[in-house]
Amino acid sequence: IQRLEESVVNRIAAGEVIQRPVSAVKELVENSLDADSSSISVVVKDGGLKLIQVSDDGHGIRREDLPILCERHTTSKLTKFEDLFSLSSMGFRGEALASMTYVAHVTVTTITKGQIHGYRVSYRDGVMEHEPKACAAVKGTQIMVENLFYNMIARRKTLQNSADDYGKIVDLLSRMAIHYNNVSFSCRKHGAVKADVHSVSRLDSIRSVYGVSVAKNLMKVEVSSCDSSGCTFDMEGFISNSNYVAKKTILVLFINDRLVECSALKRAIEIVYAATLPKASKPFVYMSINLPREHVDINIHPTKKEVSLLNQEIIIEMIQSEVEVKLRNANDTRTFQEQKVEYIQSTLTSQKSDSPVSQKPSGQKTQKVPVNKMVRTDSSDPAGRLHAFLQPKPQSLPDKVSSLSVVRSSVRQRRNPKETADLSSVQELIAGVDSCCHPGMLETVRNCTYVGMADDVFALVQYNTHLYLANVVNLSKELMYQQTLRRFAHFNAIQLSDPAPLSELILLALKEEDLDPGNDTKDDLKERIAEMNTELLKEKAEMLEEYFSVHIDSSANLSRLPVILDQYTPDMDRVPEFLLCLGNDVEWEDEKSCFQGVSAAIGNFYAMHPPLLPNPSGDGIQFYSKNLDQDLLSDAENAWAQREWSIQHVLFPSMRLFLKPPASMASNGTFVKVASLEKLYKIFERC
């Protein structure tokens, strides 16, 4: 018998701890989790044989610890054997990093909190190759493992299938991402732009990793025991229901937040599914079991992929019973997916309208959309709207919010009247609108997605991969003008609760425009102007009511206004300005100019201008803090909430149906492109 050299012993031990690239990744990621990292990024080249790079934002490694970092059995997790039974960290032996240095080239870059620079050092055979060098570094630690198994020829030859090893690494990190919701995981191949793993919520992680068919067929399962005999544990997780069919069992098991395997539990669950469901369906199972630390023996496997539990048989039996109960209760009904069949005629029409690029011969695979051109929003899906992230929904929203489906149905059903006016002047105005329509802007308006209000005037909208600022005042003004022309002489009416005298309203508008309100001579002039405009509108009352549903009675009172868009009422504070505009700005002698002027005045009146009261959610709150008027503040909040609701649920759906944007909108600032996904990707690639 001969005593082996220490280098031989270490290489043999290293081959047992680091069996393949995924073993190294698991050890490094667990170290990152022990360092309280909130973000862990993994980059792999050639399945991990050429490069494994793990970066985290944890607390880093101190400068004085670097000399012994990669020596065997050096650890910060425990100091004596008894610590194993109260251990909360993933690692504890101090073998992983040391093993890597015996079979690969390891470089560590780290920085701790409060340091102005980090340190970089390379290791070989457990020792530093040079003193730590000062370098620039981001928060946390980055460990690079290069040329794995370079000195183990036989092992390296058995691991030449890089795709297989990379798949194992992706599977490992996917399982980690499912459990650790508070940690951001990413994994990609070296040189790739898109990550193959990116963590989100638990169900979303399951959906992105294992597919929609798994995520939509899951049931939550929970078991808890506080037995006085010592069988204490809590289990929660998800199991697949009777609608899920697979050929292979997938068990994602965490015990005390440690990713492990348990063949006994796996067999017990498979027995339940085989006895309960037809065709011996294989399940998907995610479980997280928490036990007192002293009930778990974690030191039974070289790579720590298995653990031993106190009262393991009882725990498995209780979990098995709960799974069986869940399955039997869920097996009363089964859901079948229904597929919608479209008519042949509509299919042919859609094929003709598609671009030649989209027409592919039968049997040919659909071309994958590049990630920098992928559209990730849907105008019919309200998820991700801006206001959902900026502020909570006001409790004083109008009752109309509860009838959102009714509003959308009304907007879609209310089409342009088939009966158009026979007047040639109106036909010419409508033809002018159609001829000036900008085709590119029309496509944008028809297919844009509302994101939210950027300020009082501009809304954020997305079209394909572009983000725009849209001037809602200009858009709504043009839409109301066009709708006035198209509904000419076919309006429904809004009845005012109390008829309003024209002369007083016009006089009010004149006083609001006056910059010198104290001049008495001007007051007399204003009254004469108000009387003249009142008489003019009385003369035109019959025409205004017949063609525009603006009713002025014999006493010169305004009593009715037209309905331009269903479910939308204009801001009544702007009625005086509207009447003054009718009196001053309309060319009454020429028929075409008259109809155009009245329609423009109605469009401006019905446009979704910001309310006259300052916005209480912005700088305007200073106005209300000075006045200390709670009623005024409440009125302002209601007015602004009503406007934003109308913009999202009335204006934009109506624009998609009716608006034909003129060419001037492409250059007058109505639409301003602020971001493009393709350009952002180029910037990020350079960074």
Automatic annotation (TrEMBL):
Keyword Transcription: no
GO molecular function: ATP binding; ATP hydrolysis activity; ATP-dependent DNA damage sensor activity; mismatched DNA binding
Residues in DNA mismatch repair protein S5 domain copies: 206-328
Family the UniProt entry places it in: Belongs to the DNA mismatch repair MutL/HexB family.
Polar residues compositional bias, start-end: 347-369
Transmembrane regions: none
Keywords per UniProt: DNA damage, DNA repair, Nucleus
GO terms for biological process, alphabetical: mismatch repair
Coiled-coil parts of chain: none
Gene Ontology annotations for the cellular component aspect, listed alphabetically: mismatch repair complex; nucleus
Name of the molecule in the record: MLH1
Subcellular location: Nucleus
Domain of life: Eukaryota
Pfam families: DNA_mis_repair, HATPase_c_3, Mlh1_C
Positions of the UniProt region annotated as Disordered: 347-370
